[in-house]
Fold this sequence. Notes:
The protein is an alpha+beta fold and 161 residues long. The chain has two domains: 10-84, Winged helix-like DNA-binding domain superfamily/Winged helix DNA-binding domain (Arc Repressor Mutant, subunit A); 95-160, no CATH class. It is built from five helices and eleven strands. The chain has a three-stranded antiparallel beta sheet with strand order 4-3-11. The chain has a three-stranded antiparallel beta sheet with strand order 5-6-7, with no helix packed on it. Strand 6 and strand 7 (120-122) form a beta hairpin. Helix 3 (43-50) packs across helix 4. Bound molecules: zinc ion. Zinc ion binds next to loops.
Amino acid sequence: xxxxxxxxxxxxxxxxxxxxxxxxxxxxxxxxxxxxxxxxxxxxxxxxxxxxxxxxxxxxxxxxxxxxxxxxxxxxxxxxxxxxxxxxxxxxxxxxxxxxxxxxxxxxxxxxxxxxxxxxxxxxxxxxxxxxxxxxxxxxxxxxxxxxxxxxxxxxxxxxx
Length: 161
Ligand SMILES: [Zn+2]
């Protein structure tokens, strides 16, 4: 974890009234510990950092997941990482609907390319929007032209909890 500063999404500040103090503390630590949008911090470690018990942290994370702010991923049955959305959950509609509405991009060996402007970079450089349950379809937002698209990733065993 680097020293310095932490990027905090404005939509969360705009919606601060809807967050409990514990949820905010957990969020701050998830963001603080995120690298390329992923936090591998354990619930036990978060609990230690904010001096709460593990169950409070677990409850806060569940609530943040229900609010669509945090996504938890598992790999081979174990907790893998948390992801804090950098922008609000896609406007209405389910994930399948998103799949129909947005174009498909290409993914190859961890690199994704935007279907509109062909911007190409490692997947982690794109903003995540959502992740389908089977862990094979990911929604990305192009940092170059802001087009939203989805890709089929080859990463097996990655699943949203
Ligand atoms: Zn683009």
